[in-house]
Amino acid sequence: MGFDIQSDFVTSLLQNRQFENLIFFTCISLLLKSFSLCSNPKEKNVLATLEIKFIALDISRATLFHIIVILFQEQQILQCLLISISSIAQCCIIYKYKLCSHIDRIIYLIIEGVLTVFSLSLFLYFDIGEVYLSYDNKIALGFIQMGFLIMSLGIVFIKQLFPKIQKIRKLVCEQKKVQVASSQLFS
Prior knowledge:
Blueprint (H helix, E strand, L loop, with lengths): L1 H13 L2 H22 L7 H26 L4 H22 L4 H20 L13 H51 L2
Helix pairs in contact: 2-3, 3-4, 4-5, 5-6
């Protein structure tokens, strides 16, 4: 019973246009504040400014992505084109503003590049004039797309797992050093 009341409240809240507008205007105000911080000529910390620019542009792109997905549900070709442009813009944003190591930047660009190729390859599913793929070719394309997406997930998984493995290895080595030192002490 209590869950139904909470569920009804959440549903009515999410269907409320005023709540949607509040979220949208809050996001816009945060973005404007972020961009105003970036345009401050008195700011001497270039790295902080670049980080703020990246965050603001990333939030802008994510907001634009969600707006595209919601507003252009009926026009799949336009939606696909705009999402592809958004993915290409994200690659440019990562390349220009993301503060990270060279290897991390390459990893981020590979992941975003895979998503860009995925969104651009969706055009092959549409029956547009001269371009026609047979059913078998569409299935093969789908498996290729899945392979690319799984590869990018694997990259993210390895990227997150690698530091944890290094930390565990470091702790194990420290434990062995303590055991060797204590065994030499008591021998």
